[in-house]
């Protein structure tokens, strides 16, 4: 299985979170992602891709995304929070310098992409509005 993932790449869903408070998010799927890609390189790929991706509203294209966190792995458990899993930051935050594979990203993993300052504010005060 690991050899197959290396040759075909991973399918990774990136959850662009523009607002935690208003549950404003969009999913973007990336195919054939190399697990040896560094976190910084993958962030740059996502930022570049969303600038021209059809169907993505301008507010999502211009948001200052700067952090990624593992949200869900295939056949794993999902969080009860519909926006983001606010627990296990030490284990689930993707750290600069590491590769996707080293960070535990597998085929069909969901990764949240957001602005770290907004995430920290949401963790301190987890209020959502419609």
Describe this structure in words.
- By secondary structure, the protein is an alpha+beta fold.
- It has five helices and four strands; from the N terminus they run αββααβαβα.
- It has helices spanning 2-8, 39-52, 58-62, 89-92, 116-124, and strands at 10-19, 24-33, 67-72, 109-114.
- It has a four-stranded mixed beta sheet with strand order 2-1-4-3.
- Strand 1 and strand 2 form a beta hairpin.
- The radius of gyration is 14 Å and the shape is globular.
- The N and C termini lie far apart (42 Å).
In short:
The protein is of the alpha+beta class and 130 residues long.
What topology emerges from the helices and strands here?
Elements: H1 2-8, E1 10-19, E2 24-33, H2 39-52, H3 58-62, E3 67-72, H4 89-92, E4 109-114, H5 116-124
Parallel strand pairs: 1-4
Antiparallel strand pairs: 1-2, 3-4
Quaternary status: single chain
What is the number of helical segments per DSSP (H or I, 4+ residues)? Answer: 5
Determine the structural class based on helices, strands and strand pairing: alpha+beta
Biggest β-sheet, characterized? 4 strands, mixed
Number of strands: 4
């Amino acid at each position: 299985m690991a050899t197959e993932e290396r040759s075909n790449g991973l399918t990774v869903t990136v959850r662009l979170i523009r607002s935690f408070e208003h549950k404003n998010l969009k999913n973007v799927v990336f195919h054939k992602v190399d697990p040896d890609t560094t976190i910084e390189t993958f962030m740059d790929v996502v930022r570049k891709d969303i600038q021209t991706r059809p169907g993505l509203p301008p507010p999502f294209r211009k948001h200052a995304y700067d952090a990624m966190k593992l949200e869900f792995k295939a056949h794993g458990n999902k969080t009860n929070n519909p926006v983001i899993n606010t627990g296990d930051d030490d284990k689930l935050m993707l750290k600069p310098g590491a590769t996707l594979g080293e960070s535990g990203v597998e085929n069909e993993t969901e990764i949240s992409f957001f602005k770290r300052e907004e995430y920290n504010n949401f963790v301190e005060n987890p209020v959502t509005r419609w």
